[in-house]
Structure formats: C-alpha cells, structure tokens
Amino acid sequence: MDRLLLTEVAPRDGLQNQPTLVPTAGKLELIRRLAEAGLTRIEAASFASPKAVPQMADAEEIVAGTRSLPGVEVSALAMNGRGLDRALACGTPQIATVVAATEGMNRRNINMTLERATAAAEEVIGRALEAGIAVRAYVAVAFECPFEGPVEPAAVVRLAERFAAIGAGEVVIADTIGAAAPGQVSALLRALLPSLPAERIGMHFHDTRGFGIANAHAAIEAGIRRFDASAGGIGGCPFAPGAAGNLATEDVVLLAEKSGLATGVDLPTLIDAVDVAGRLLGRPLGGRAMPWLRRSHAQASGDPR
Amino acid sequence: MDRLLLTEVAPRDGLQNQPTLVPTAGKLELIRRLAEAGLTRIEAASFASPKAVPQMADAEEIVAGTRSLPGVEVSALAMNGRGLDRALACGTPQIATVVAATEGMNRRNINMTLERATAAAEEVIGRALEAGIAVRAYVAVAFECPFEGPVEPAAVVRLAERFAAIGAGEVVIADTIGAAAPGQVSALLRALLPSLPAERIGMHFHDTRGFGIANAHAAIEAGIRRFDASAGGIGGCPFAPGAAGNLATEDVVLLAEKSGLATGVDLPTLIDAVDVAGRLLGRPLGGRAMPWLRRSHAQASGDPR
C-alpha cells in the first residue's frame, strides 16, 4: 500500500513558542505517547539558544530521554554551528536545519544576507554528514514572506538544489506563515521536481487560513509522500488570537485514510496523545477534524463523552 | 478572468436548523448585506412545512421582501408539490429541490423509495419549468450516507442524468454530511462529467472534517465553477457539539482569490455580513479562514480590534 511518511513536530515546532513552560518529563511523556500512536519520525527538540527559546533549553535531556524509544527516528533542530556542536556532543541521531528563501526574512530574523545564511547552513549540513548523522534541510517562507510577499518558485528551487547538492537527505519546503493555497503548492512542485525526486522532498504546512489539508492534498497529487505535522495542530504564535498552528497530524492521518494511503498511525491513540499535550499546555487542542474525530471515536468506543 | 459562480445558502441551509428563531426583518437585512458583498445568487428561504422547519415559516415574506434586490437571483427550496405550489403562488423566481442518492436516506427521511422520491422530484422540476422558473436539482448524500456508508458514483450519475434530462438547469452534488475527501470528489466528477457538462454542475460541501476547501479545490481542478457556500459557515446541526456547518463563503472567496479566480465578492463587506448573522444568532460565526481574515482586515483598515 502506498504510504505517507510523517514527521511529527509537535514536541519542537509545536511547543517552542508556547507560553506555558512544559517540564522535561512532560515532553518525554508526550513523545512516548506520539511514538505509541505509530509516529516513527519525531522532531523532539531544538538546540537554539536557551535565552532565545527557553522552552527548548532541555534539548540534551530530551535527546537522552528518547534514545531508548524503539523504532523511532528522533531529530532535533540545529540552526547554526553552536547548535550543531551541542547536537553532536549529546549524540543526536538526526538534525534539521533551516534557511529562509528571502533576503528580507534572513536579514530580519538572523541579520544575514540570504547567501551568507545559505553558506552557514551548508557548513552545518556538511559537518553533520561528516559526523555520520542524517540532515533534513528546510526552506522557510517558501511561498510567501511577511517582509517581501509572494516568493518566486525559482528562489526555492535554487536553495533546495544547494541543500541537495551538499547531501541533505530530505529537503523540506515550509509554508512558514501558512499563506499557500493548493495552486501555489502545485506550481512550486512543478518547478522543483525536475531538480529533486519526490522521495527527497518533504512539505511543512501551517494552517493559518485553513488551507493546510488542501495544500497537503495538492502535494500528494504531485507525488510527495513526506509531510511534517503537529499533533493537535500545536504551533504558530499563541499570542495572536485565532492564529492557527501547524497542520495537525490527525487531519493528515484522516486525509490519508480517506485517500487510501497508509501512515502507520492509530487515530484513537493519537487523540489520547493530543489530550496529553492539552493537559501539559492547559488548553484544549485539536486540528480541523478533531471535533468530528472525538465524536466518532467516542461513538466507536461507547464512551459517552 | 475565469470566475466562480457562488450560490449563497446561509439564509436557507445555514439558518434552517438554528435554534434561535431569526425574525423576518433580520433575515432580510442579512440577505441585503450578502447582496451588498457581491453575492448575486442567494438561496433565501424554504417552502418546507412550517411545523417541521419553523425557522422557514416566513418563506413567502422573504420572497416578497427580496423581490426588489437589484441583480440578485433569489431561489427557495421546494421539496415537494405542496412546497412548489407555495413557491409559485408567491412568485419565487427560482427553486431548488433535493433527492438523496440512497434508498436508506429516502426511507428514513421521507419514507419513500429512491425511485418514488426521484419521480416526485421529476414532477416538481417539470411543473416548475412549465411555470417558467429555473430549477437547481440537488443530489444529497452524494458521497456517503449515514445509513448506507459510501455511495457509488454510478448512483449519483443516474440521478443527475434524470434531473438533467427533465431539464434542471443545474445539478448540485451535495456532500450532506461532510464526509468527502478530495480524492472522492475527483472520482465522482470523473464519473459524472461524461454525462453532464461542468457548466451544469454545482457542488455543495459541508465542512464537518475540515476538508471543505480541499474538496472545493479538487472540484475546481476538475473544471467545476459553481459552488454553494454559507457566509460564516452557518449550517449543520448546532446541537452536535463541534459540528461544523456548511463550507464558508469567506473560505471559498479566499481560495478563489489565491487561485486567480474572480467571485465578485468583496471580503471586508462579506465579513460585515457574517457579523450581522452572528448578531442574529447570538454567537460568533466564521469559517476556517475567518480568524486570519479578521486580523488581516483589521490591519488593513487600521481597526485595532
């Protein structure tokens, strides 16, 4: 059966901007529950500066605490050389690194030109590969930049080609601000697929405008099978009222089930994992399909909730 | 510019099951505001039995009150001969009528066989056309039936062909319980398009699982340009907690804008119309994109809300 390969990002991209500091034990419990649900690729931590991202200050402990999870590929974000040093020092099995596709975003975010940011990422990727660990390389703001507006597919293709050339196993195209519509997804993939086979491309969507599932479907139609998703849709900026987070894992799994694609994920167990995350953050969580999934799950189990 | 032709259904499908009885003046205000937003096809009322659907008891007054709206095609639902008599008696300009695609739904809902329900609808359609008014004929539960499960495309095609043969100008395929995924939409349209040109097909989606926009995009990709939508996503069963309603007009308009398709709808004016509906129902309304649309609208207008 044709299958989707999901990378669960709730423990990292989901949690990193949440105002409630989640204790290490809570994160490890969440990761364990996500693994139990059948998620075999989990982005678990970030080696960002603990001052800049206090939620991720326990990255070393998370990597140590997840080492014994059977059959799970754990990765962590390393945005620069210092982050990579920490990742390597504690034996992180896989890293992710990110470059934004526009001058404006790189200047505002890390005070670098696009070229300097790309060269720095190439160095991180090269060093990680030398150390024998796999790399997922992200192209951020691949559709629209908050400072420059719509992004030309050619700019994304150039960056993806450089990441692939240096040896990143997977290049992930990220709609960082959730601005893409399915037509843009199809257009970008038409531009990218001649340079990079579908097996090396992942997609990372945010669901800001409610187009996440439509975008995922457009990517599936183009042959993409690797997707990031965040259990409960956790992510985004919790301070912006009504801001939606990452594309929810449960929504993607439901889309896959409806599309005849396997994911290996058990939805009832995933809903329980989302509830663990909800208790950690002190608020109800769930993607677009969650109200229906909860009703349907409750009916199936005879649970009257 | 290629365009989508939207039929706004909030005043009928949206309101009909709402527990708050909306006064006739409130409905007419909502319809006027929807027309101001640029919606030129509005399903305004239903000639259902006032006992069965008290919210629609004022159908004659709604038809009378909307007669002077410039450039707006007003339609009303007439499910049977008695409804049609009422529609014709008060000069309704256009009707919609509905048959469910399955035996189970027809038996449970109107205690008829599928064949008898179809024949009854053919009589309604025939009489309406003789009276010189246009008909939109709906195929309900076209993807999944709550009593029979998944529906074969062939069953939908047979019904659509009969509606088209008797002269219904538009056949609308309705995902009544919001169960379709985009792959099913594509498959059904592949089966239907050899029998009926895209210009005579409309799609009516509910957003129960958050797949509404993905389904609309799949239909657009198949060449469909006629869509029902409900301002604010009003609709569905308000008693089921978390049940989502109809596909929201604002979501479809945003998809169209992102897809280079015109709709004639002005989003800020539509948001104001949704707020009118929200005041009538006493609760905040809005489709999946609404939180983002409100922020974006507030920023553009300098409105600090």
TrEMBL record, chains A, B:
Gene3D superfamilies: Aldolase class I. The keyword Protein biosynthesis does not apply. One of its GO terms (biological process) is L-leucine catabolic process. InterPro entries: Aldolase_TIM, HMGL, PYR_CT. The keyword Metal-binding applies. It holds the Pfam family HMGL-like. Residues 4-271 form the Pyruvate carboxyltransferase domain. It comes from the Bacteria. GO terms for molecular function: hydroxymethylglutaryl-CoA lyase activity; metal ion binding. Keywords: Lyase, Metal-binding. Belongs to the HMG-CoA lyase family. This is Hydroxymethylglutaryl-CoA lyase. It comes from Azospirillum palustre.
